[in-house]
Amino acid sequence: MIRRELATFFAALGYFTRLPVPGWVGYSPDGLARAARYLPAIGLLVGGVGALVFWLALHVWAQPVAVVLAMVATIALTGAFHEDGLSDTADGLGGGWDKAKILAIMKDSRVGSYGVIAVVIALLGKFALLATLPAGQVVAALIAGHTVSRFCAVSLMATMDYARDDETSKARPVAARLGIGTLGFALVFAALPLVLLAPEQVLPAIALAALVTLWLAAKCRRWLGGYSGDCLGAVQQVAEIGFYLGLAARF
Question: Which pick of 46, 104, 119, 243 has the fewest CB atoms within 10 Å?
């Protein structure tokens, strides 16, 4: 059982990041289907690396520079996996007029104007928000933002159907409808870093992350009848920004 669980975690690590995994893990669609529950745990790792880079850089440079280096570290670690999903989703929803056309645009490797604008705004938004937070909060914000936003993506997999019918989709192996037990397992990892933040910060951050998740999920349900792998990446990005917006809000 332990070996199987380790294989599941490493499958998630290999799928959602650029980090190498042990050769004995191998590949199986069933393993990837189980790997989705570890997505918030991968967020702990990615956010932790970003937080470490920020903390180290802050000893040498000003906070805005440290934030940029932290963002570069997280993007390099994931290979811009979620940013690519945001770009494709923006292009599809912005340029398509029905399900077939939207999915075709999302699958196109070319990047359109909607996608470029969405990624630029997302990167600038995260930079501006993290740069304006007190330096002592950025470490916790990075870790919590990456875990909570990935749980938001997992929540779509538990509440919506997979929109693509083609068997060649890279996301199909992790597209099975998740059960309540799997969602609860993912929630544990998402909740862990929240203890690093004050309750009065956590509540608005979670509320805004949930709000933007519901907004984007509603658009995916309306136009696609469900979600795609690109939609999951887009949800992670907008939920992360929503989380930072809540932390930076002045009430």
Answer: 104
| 9 contact partners, CB below 8 Å, separation of at least 6 | 35, 38, 41
| CB 51, CB 143: distance < 8 Å | yes
Per the CB < 8 A criterion, the answer to whether 204 and 251 are in contact is yes
Query: Cα 86 vs. chain centroid, distance in angstroms?
Result: 10
176 close to 33: Cβ distance less than 8 angstroms: yes
Q: What is the DSSP letter of 17?
A: S
Backbone angles phi, psi at 227, to 5 degrees: -125, 160
* Residue 224, Ramachandran bin (φ over 0: left; ψ between -120 and 50: alpha; else beta): alpha
Structure tokens that stand for 73 in this block: 């570290």
One-letter amino acid of 34 = R
Q: For the chain, 251 residues long, give each residue's pLDDT as a single digit of tens.
A: 787 888 889 889 988 999 988 877 766 666 667 788 999 999 999 999 999 999 999 999 999 999 999 999 999 999 999 999 999 999 999 988 899 999 999 998 889 999 999 999 999 999 999 999 999 999 999 999 999 999 999 999 999 989 877 655 555 555 567 888 889 999 999 999 999 999 999 999 999 999 999 999 999 999 999 999 999 999 999 999 999 999 999 86
